[in-house]
Amino acid sequence: MSGINSVELVGTLTGKEAVRYTPAGLEVFEGTFHHRAQLVEAGRTRTLEFDFPAVSYAETAKALNGLAPGAQISLKGFLAPRSMKSRRLIVHITEFN
User: Fold this and answer.
1) How far apart are CA 58 and CA 49, in angstroms?
2) 4-21 residue pLDDT tens
3) Rounded to an integer, what distance in angstroms lies between the CA atom of residue 54 and that of residue 62?
4) Dihedral of alpha carbons 22, 26, 27, 28, sign
């Protein structure tokens, strides 16, 4: 069975881990972003503000690792559990600008 799993957000980089590599040699980015937006829900304006963890691999990770804290990006990706034994979700960034 297939389903849609797509995320598109604007976020400000608030922190990132030291660069590391997978056993296969792929560069990894792990960081935290802050999102703030106003949306309309049920006819009313709602302000959303939250932090979210993100991860990325390979060339996208290399570019993200080059960002300084405070950088604001528009990102696309998907949600997945942090690990096979976890139910906590993390944003996997597949592209950004």
Assistant:
1) 29
2) 999 999 999 999 999 999
3) 14
4) negative
Q: Which of 15, 27, 24, 87 is nearest to 54 (CA)?
A: 15
| Helices within the chain (DSSP H only) | 58-65
Cβ neighbourhood burial of 46 (10 Å; 0-12, 13-18, 19+): exposed
Q: What is the pLDDT of residues 13-42, one digit of tens each?
A: 999 999 999 999 999 999 999 999 999 999
Of 55, 49, 48, 45, nearest to 19 by C-alpha is 55
Distance of CA 4 to the CA centre of its chain: 17
